[in-house]
């Protein structure tokens, strides 16, 4: 749809024309269209202009001009947000600021274990660049072929290796950003200690682009993996799974992933994803996927380690059945099951999805009790959680009753399910957004469920940095209380 | 000195009288006096009232009343700031809010490795409480017998175990704080993942009490030490010391401390601190103190580990002489040398002290070049650095020429030395405050050396939280640009 530009947008375009590199301004609707809708097709935005600057200086120029003309900016990286965080508003009031052309890995210092990557670097490309120097950037997730460093920083991304290395927050050693006044904050120097007042880096991590534009980051690297082993185990319940993890952690630091899934997730994958097969022969109510690695020559071979630890756990009755992948192809097949759960569940039917966390020790009980409460409250639905047990973070999905009409269920029923789940999470002292952020999807729920003190603090920060609401408008926090909506 | 209360302070006192627990209000000048001056006797403040609330609710009551009456608050824990951060202004305009009575360890969960400690808990007491449950709170520093959790959080404290476990920022899993509107931010739940907007916890850590009052923290614990070994080695220069550390890190994760000191620091300690003796017999230009630990039954015994690694380093020529402490008493004696450097240097004569950081890889060269530049620029002075090489953080001290009059030198000469050192640090991409914070001591230097963008961001945050400048006035950032001073 061709949009008419507002007078302010026209002035902005006139101001910037000729001042930026060749491909930095896009106004062809066909070229803009793919970036107006989120990757799952849930949020539809609209914009007459897409900027794609090639350098930090160009970002600063665009930001300064946009603020001068009061034109809002929707920053965008790989457009893989789970919460509509990178989709512009539908009314055409904002323009997209895509960082994708800023895709240089500026430097890798293998000795100091640091990489400096621009905001548009795709995660998989950073993985490859680090591997070429016998180092590794440990954070990874399903969207690694599209997600960009700027987006991962701005959403404090998690993924499947958080257990050992933490979220993005723990891996960012320095940041470069363009602040709302158009100035460049140069914080790329990787200082392990720096107490010069409020930590702007920490504030920008996870701010979803609402306080300024991240243009580059200095990232910590870890030693490359020499060898890995992947195992699959059947367990009786989430409590046993957590006990298993605790036993492992008491004996080794080699466990990098520990993912939990219920039997029905496995069944959905086997039914809907081609070329998948059950890793173990027996039927089990719950499953864990475990990855162990060796990075140093003296480290115990991870296969021997897992066989030993799982053997002990079998004897102790904590594990009911287990197998280790005997080849890299089989290891990848195990991981493919885990990474296909969301797709498989979508094929199964409509579901309300929730990315939630509670304290780790409370998660096994929460999973069981919340699922039972949900099933009782919404007859015909089926609730279950899967994911990062060791992080206290699961994706808690509530499947719609069979034979409902999907579109109608999402509008008429799902919001009540979501509010019910979120209320349980808050009652358990948890978070309604563990790793997927707020974006536009959870804005109203964040307002509904946050204390007045917390909301006031969020608004005060937003207003201090962006008084006119020009940076990623409609995401994370509304400057004024928004009308109740879902 | 008895101070006359301002009318606002009188109203505050009247408002709070009878609403707080028995010992919560102190107006006896003799009882207040010890808390009006910092522990090194450099900063002298004055106040007519000291509040010492016993609970978070009482803190909230005091904060709300103080904001209503526009009375400024100087929060104070153990009063061990190195930068005058806990000393009230000399004009009596602020009252002290001491957290020392909030000294309960609320809970320790050994399984989840978490402790909840109130702001007034003394660090050594937390160490003991964790040890009683076979766990350890790893952060430690010289002032552990006085420093409190609230102060350690609010200053993002460092210390000698940062190498492995990071600063306070990495050890805080949750926070409770009273915000400037008198509301209680309850963020004690230890969520490993939580992306509900801007991270208030991260903002309050290191804010020096200027954005609100930290009342309690959930802190990460680590396994107790089963066995430790401490070694002393002589090296040719800081570059060799860093290479030694890198070699160790490539082979083990057991190194917890790696402290570097020049020969003249050792000589000063031996000359001025009773019952100290040189760990190694040969004279060496630089020394490193290394601590390795074992926490799991299968870990290599740390003594054997250090002997093996140091033996290899001797053969490789990286180390010139080395010895390992053969008893716990000897290990403590090695540490006493390190911990006595500041005292010994004070006894040697006046010195300008700087707590600085640069990227780790840049530190060896910085230490040599900055010392040479300093000695050349200020004839008769002697500059050298010691401390946390692996963190890129040293305490860079410039000794006054012999036979100067101390008081006069501090006023007439030291400020220029400090500005010179700080300029070198900034040129190297470093920080003028690595772990001691800004307080009142470095306020003018932070303003002089920060980019306008950074200063504007700091002021915007401060104004958003504390528009009337009532929280720890005169520390960290001035609401309006301050007059040049030292």
Task: Describe this structure as you would to a colleague.
- 2 copies of one chain form a homodimer.
- With 486 residues, chain A is α+β, with helices and mostly antiparallel strands.
- Chain A has 18 helices and 18 strands.
- Chain A has helices at 7-16, 29-32, 56-69, 123-131, 149-154, 162-165, 168-171, 200-204, 238-251, 263-272, 302-315, 328-339, 341-348, 363-377, 406-412, 414-427, 443-449, 452-465, and strands spanning 25-26, 50-51, 72-76, 94-98, 105-109, 114-118, 135-136, 172-178, 184-187, 213-220, 222-223, 227-235, 255-262, 286-294, 321-324, 351-357, 382-388, 393-399.
- In chain A, the strands form 5 sheets. In chain A, strands 5-6-10-8-9 form a 5-stranded antiparallel sheet. Chain A has a 4-stranded mixed sheet with strand order 1-2-4-3.
- In chain A, strand 17 (382-388) and strand 18 form a beta hairpin.
- At the A-B interface, strand 9, helix 8, helix 9 and helix 18 of A face strand 9, helix 8, helix 9 and helix 18 of B.
Low-pLDDT regions of chain A: 482-486
Number of helices of chain A: 18
Rg of chain A, rounded, reads 23 Å
Measured between the Cα atoms of the first and last residue of chain A, the distance is 26 Å
Keywords for this structure?
five-stranded antiparallel sheet, 18 strands, homodimer, 486 residues, 18 helices, four-stranded mixed sheet, 20% strand, globular, alpha+beta
